[in-house]
Amino acid sequence: MDRTVVAYVIYLVVSIALTVWVARTLSRNGRVFLADVLQGNEKLADAVNHLLVVGFYLVNLGFVALYLSGDATIEDTREIFEALSTKLGVVLLVLGVMHLGNVYVLNRIRRRGVMEREQVPPVAPQGWVGTRGA
């Protein structure tokens, strides 16, 4: 079998496995965070979590597929490792950026929700205080 094909197969297997592992980890641990962001609405948290996971898969697996091809043919084992380390390194960076982007957006949504909850007074106002001298 051609070494380039071997490198492609290894790249696909490792990239897909990493993408699935990261997506499952984010889904499992992000659900609690989403429930807090969405003020305890479990059904909505599950729906948003599922949509985020689907989007995560589509973006990352699309990137893995687009980044598969290479210009150079691989002649020896050393070049297999070099090509794989470059390709997998870029895939890991993309996965990390996607993760940080998700966390950033969700944290912004959470902060906005906390700010809105803090603006509601715990007790309804009972009247107005007049100003002096008016």
Q: What is the overall number of helices?
A: 3
Overall SS class: mainly alpha
Order of secondary-structure elements: HHH
Biggest sheet record = none
From the N-terminal CA to the C-terminal CA, the straight-line distance is 92 Å
Give me the count of strands.
0
Mean pLDDT across the residues is 82
Strand content bin = under 5%
Shape from CA axes? elongated
The share of residues in helices is: over 70%
Contiguous runs where pLDDT drops below 50 for at least 5 residues: none
What is the gyration radius calculated from CA atoms?
24 Å
Overall description:
The mean pLDDT is 82. The longest helix has 43 residues, at 77-119. The N and C termini lie far apart (92 Å). The protein is built from three helices and no strands. It is mostly helical and 134 residues long.
Keywords:
3 helices, 134 residues
Provide a brief overview of the structure.
With 134 residues, the protein is an all-alpha fold.
Describe how the helices and strands are arranged.
Layout: H1 3-37, H2 42-66, H3 77-119
Helix pairs in contact: 1-2, 1-3, 2-3
